Each structure stands twice: as C-alpha cells, then as structure tokens.
Amino acid sequence: MNLLRLSLNLLRRDWRAGEWRVLLLALVLAVGSLATVGLFADRVRQALAQQATSLIGADLRITSTRTFPAEYRDMARGLRVVESRTFPSMVAHGEQVLLSEIQAVEAGYPLRGKIEIDDGESAVGRTVFTPTLALPLKGRGDVPARGTVWVDERLLRRLNIKIGDAVGIGARQFIVAARIVKDVDQSLGFASFAPRVMMNEADLARTGLLQEGSRISYRMMFAGEAAQVAALRAALQAKLSGNEKLEDVRDARPEIRTALERAESFLGLAALTAAMLAGAAMALAARRFVLRHLDGCAVMRCLGAQQAQLLWLFLYQFILLGLCAALLGGLLGYITQAVLVDSIAAMRAANLPQPSLLPVWKAALSGIALLIGFAFLPLLQLRQASPLRVLRREIAAPEASVGLAYSLAGLVLAGLFVWQAGSWQLGLLVLGGLLFALILFAVLANLLLRVLAHYADFFAAPERLGVLNLARHGAALQIVALSLGGMALLVLTLVRADLLASWQGKLPADAPNRFVVNIQPEQQAAIRNFFTREQLSPPELLPMVRGRLVAINARQINANSFSEPRAQALVEREFNLSYRDTLPSWNTLVAGLWWQVNATNELSVEQGIAKTLGIQLGDTLTYDVAGTTFSARVTSLRKVAWDSMKVNFFVIATPDVLRDMPESYLASVYVPPDKLALSDALSREFPNLLVIDTNSVIAQVQSIIAQIAQTVSVVFLFTLLSGLVVLYAALLASQDERAKSSAILRTLGAGSGYLRRLQRAEFALLGALSGALAAAGASVLAWAVSRWVLEIPYQMSASVWLIGIVGGMVLVMLAAGFIARRSLQLPVMTLLRD
Description:
Elements: H1 2-17, H2 21-53, E1 60-64, H3 71-75, E2 80-93, E3 96-105, E4 115-118, E5 126-129, E6 148-151, H4 153-159, E7 166-169, E8 172-182, E9 196-200, E10 217-223, H5 226-237, E11 244-247, H6 249-252, H7 254-302, H8 307-343, H9 345-350, H10 358-383, H11 402-421, H12 424-454, H13 461-472, H14 476-506, E12 514-519, H15 524-533, E13 542-552, E14 555-556, H16 565-572, E15 575-579, E16 587-592, E17 602-606, H17 607-613, E18 620-625, E19 628-640, E20 651-653, H18 655-658, E21 664-669, H19 678-685, E22 690-693, H20 695-731, H21 735-747, H22 752-790, H23 799-825, H24 828-833
Helix pairs in contact: 1-8, 2-7, 2-8, 2-10, 2-20, 7-10, 7-11, 7-14, 7-20, 8-10, 10-11, 11-12, 12-13, 12-14, 12-22, 13-22, 14-20, 14-22, 21-23, 22-23
C-alpha cells in the first residue's frame, strides 16, 4: 500500500512537471486513432451490409422449387420472415400478350432495402418501404393492394399501357396501380429476361396459375439481428434438402461480394496503419521517459530502493496511465467519428447505424497492449539504474534484456495486426513486411548516418553540424520509426488508389446492361447488321453448348458423390459450355497454360467451380450433350471477373471439342439511355431471342460500389490525419536532446538564425532519409497487398518516391520545427537547469 501511495504521489508530481504528457498524448492518440477508425469502419460495414442486403431483400433467404416445411418458420422465432413465389406467365392487354415474371409477395416484403414506385400522383415517385435495422420485428411494409399489380417500365412500354389500365393474368383482371421505379430481390440470370410484375400473395390462388408441374420458385426470407441470423443459418444448413439453396448477399451476388471483401480488407489495413503509427510513437515516447527518469531512479537506489520496488513503482503508474488513456482515447474516438460522420453530407444522408462498443474495447485493449509491449524495456532499464549516476552523470542507461523486450513488443504487434486486420492473411502479410522493413531500415539508417558523417566536411558549417547531430544523437531510431510510419501511410495511399481504380474499371459507365440469349447460328450476320443499323457496335457473339458433367477421370459422378450442397446442385444441372481460341480479356489464368492455336481436347475451368468439385489440372472431364458424350483434359484454371457484367462461362473448350455440338449464341451489350426501345425492336425482329434487361441491377451495383469507394476515401483521409498526429507525438521524444544542444550552442555564441538553419538542415535530412526508406518499403508492401490479399492490379508509380522524400522533408520540418521553437525562445539557463 505504501508503494502504491508513493507511486500515486510520483505520478502526480510527474504530471505537474509534464513528464507524462508525451507518453499520455501518444497513448491517447493511439487509442483514439484505433477507436475512431474502428468505430467508423464498424458503422460503414453495417451500412454497406444493409445496403447490399437490399439486393436480395433480406439478410438471409432460401430458394427452392418446392414449398418449404413449416418448421423453417418455427426455427426463425425472433426474426422477421416473409415468403414470395415467382413464376413465368403471360400478361394480356387487349390483343397483346407478353411473357412476364410474376412475383406474389406477402405483407412485410421486402425485409431489407426499399421499393420505389410511381403511382401517377407524383412526378418523382415515392418510397413505399424503407426498412432499417432499427425497425421493430413486427414492422409491416406496403405491397400491392388486392386486385392491383405493380409493373416495371418494360411491361408498360411493350404493352403500350399506362397506370390505371387493366391487365389479365391467368383467370383474373388486375389494375396497374404503379410503375416500379426501383426494385429489390431481382435475379441476375437467364430466367430474368421477362418484365416484372408484383402482386399480392392473397390474389395468387384466384388466378388459377398454381397447377401441378408449374415452374414456381419459392423464396423464404429472414431479417433481424446479425447473431440471430447467423444462428439460423447454421441451423438451417443441416436441414436443407437437395433442391433448396441458402444464401445471403455474398452468395447471391458475386459482383458485390468482391467489392465488399476488398472494402473490409482496406478498412482492416487502415486499422493496421493506426496501430503501426501508435507503436512508433510509443517506442520513442518510452525512450524519452527512460532518459528523463534515470537520475531519479539512481537517487532512490542510493536511498535503499530495491530493483523490484522500482519496477512496481513505475508499473503502477503505467497501469493507471493506461487505464486513463484508454478511457480518454475511447471517448475521443467516439466523439471524433461522430463529428466526422456529421460533417460529411453524404454520410449524413446515408443514415449510418450507431456503432457497437466492440471497437472501443478493441482499441482500449490494443492501447494497453502497446503500452505494455513497448514500456517493458524502459521499466527493466529504470529498475537497473546505477546509483553511481548520482555522481557520474555520463553513465548511460543500463542495458536491458533487449531480445526479451523486443520479442514481447513483436508478439504484441503480431496479435494486434491479426486482430485489427480481420484477416490473418492480411495481418501476417503486413506484419511480416513491417518486421522485415524494421530490420532493413535499422541497418540502412545506421549505414546512411555513418556515410553522411564521414562526408560532413563537404557541407557548410550549419548543415555540417546538423548532419553530425543526427549521427551523434542516435537518430537511427527516429529514422526507423518515421520510415515505418511513412511506409504505412504510403501503402495506404497506393492501395487506395489501386482499389478505387479497380472498382471504377470494373463497372464503367458503358458496362453491359443487356444479355441477348438464344441466338441461332444462322442469325449471327443478321444480329450484327441490326446493331450496325442502330448505330451501335456489333456485339461479340459467344457460342454456348448445354452439357451435364457425368464423370471426372472416368469415374461416374452424381449428386451423391458430393457432400457440399453447392457441388450437388452443380452436377444436377446442365453447364453452359463455350469454346474459343483466345482467353477472354476479362479472365485471368491462375494455373496452367492457355492452349495453342489448333490445340485439341483441352478445357479451361473457372477456379471457384474447380475447387467446389475437386477438379485439378490434368483431370479428364466427361460431359453429356444431348445424348452425345465427349471427354477432354483440364489444362488451365481461370479467375473470372463476375463483376464485369460480361458473359462468363464455367468451362471453355478448344473449338474442336464443341464445334459440331448443338449450339446457340449469346452476347452482352450496352444499350444507351436514348435507345431503350432497341430491346423491343430486337425482340420484334427476332421473336426467338431472349433479351435480359440488367439495367436496374447494374444501377444498384454501381450505387453500392460508389458508396464503398466514398467510404474508403473518407477512412483513408481520417487515418492519414491520425497518422500525422501520432507522428507528431513521436517527434516530441527528441525535444530534450535538441533543447540541450541548442542551449550549449547559444552559450557558445550561436545566434537564432544559425540555429534555425542548423535545425532546418537536420530536419530536412531526417525527413528525406525517412521518406526515401518509406517509399522503397511502401512500393514492395503495396505490391504484395494488392497482389496477394486484395487481388487487384498494382500500378507502379515513380511519384511515390517524390511524395515520400519531399513529403517527408516538409512534414518533419514543419512538425519538428514547431516543437523545437521552444529551445530558441527560452533562456539558456532555464534549458541547462532542466
């Protein structure tokens, strides 16, 4: 108790003297940075998840070709549940009929997202249902009233009807009550070629369309708290039958899954950057603390204090400091992210959900872990302070168990990196790169300082003294810390630029928004002429052959050959096969080689389906095409850009394999807004074609990706600001040494102008060396992160060197110059006494 009381008294005294302010500032900023990024990222992840779930209208859904067991609803207690049924049917108006996709929905649909309709009463339409996570579980949304339907623009245009007209569906007549402006839960496949009609579930039985053998797709949708949804998914997974498919937005939308995963990885990288900068600041602040407390520890050793007592004396202070800093940093992070969100109009309009407290706890624990990891070395050094230092001030700080201390620091950083990244692959990759950079930067920094000191005579007097000061004061540690911090910020800059470029390139303004299916071989020339006549570029017509996989390496397979539901579903249906000589430009080979011209009996398989079905390079696959079988060998695996909105195939063969098989052609085309009637004209001229309109789905995807890109930019900017503040705290660690040097030079007659010139030279050199090392490390690490984690192209840029060197010089000169101005303003006697 006496030791604790003494520790509190010393803490109070040191606080009044300003001894703890640097370390406390570094720790508060560390926790605040982690908390801000974590809280903001948590809100963004929730918002992105909510926005993305609008694509399937729920958090989770089951699709099936049969009705669902009653127990599925019973298992979803505490969640909102609705069902819908979708099927193709003819819609009649006067003498015209049109094949359409009918969807019968229950009250409360959709559970996520919003349906916007134009009922003719408003020029801009109205939102009829906008669910959020905050809605009560018993909330109900609007659906078409009984006896009415909502239809999309295509049906109005092709049947030449308007709101208020009557249409026939089955045995019933319905009033068109509204036009669907924006829909949710839309399919993106060859079954969604028809215009969409939404009706009330209560009207379905009266249409007489529910007959034995009807092609009906049943959907049961769930929404609620994430934990409950996850538990339901695990419970349902074990009960699904072969014709039922369980999916969330990641399963249903491969074009969104990639964007979400990359966004989450980037946000994890942003958190890693804050942690890295915090570690650098803590290391330098701890070093400053040791140097300023050696004299006091030496006096206490002379008065009989034991090493264990000194250790606990400072350990109590560090624990109290850590708790206070964690509380203040968490509060700072919460306030900062709230102000940040409120200050950005787009973020306010997004109505981001409130964050959970988990990021605050993670930030607090991370800050305390950083404190312990980087304060253990100074505690060991302080307890071993020599009593002789009372008489001989030149005695340096005692050597501690450097290996043990830095091993602890490395272990703490490793845990934080993996934890904060949210991905062990990202965490270990960045950690490995930074640890390697730490060693390399330390070697290069010492080498560069020695070389500069050797050639210092080539500089003018102030600059020469600045160079020698860097070597004399052990600036290698500062260079390493600033280089690591700068590298982390540059990596974030480079990866963000590549990430945004990748997203913008995936969905350009002219991304294909129509699929044209069922083109017959003899119609190819006529189709090309049609597009030329419409002053559009003729599309690339891709051959398609329908075939079922029946054997792998001569071993017959069926659904019972696989335990995974997706694999069972794949082998139960026919594949869309194609053939060509060249690799599609939007596909990437990941294994094997593409075939040479005139190659025979070779296949290229998409890597995802290959993994699901256990297909390897060299395997022989056998397909059944309309009763005719063929076999070919897998010679390459491809990565398919599903989010390109272009035509993709799971399996591509050499032309000799499929050329004589029954085939049709398909194409993806972009139809500009001023040619929306082209789809109708194409259908009239070629009645056998299916023209699939994916424009609304494209709009949803582009909207979500735009929000993700904006979010990434905001998180990047804030992390950059946080990093600069933490780097400023790290520069405070060298304040005492520079103040002492300035005092001695002023005593010897140096003027303020001379000292400013000396400091500018020293800080410019410090920033240039740090920036150069940071640029080199960032180029390598950004390439690795882009290549192996985010899987996006990396664009090497020489500007990173200019940004690193010039930016490092400017930032260090501004920050360090602001700190060092005190040494030029205080009286010399005050500095020497301090």
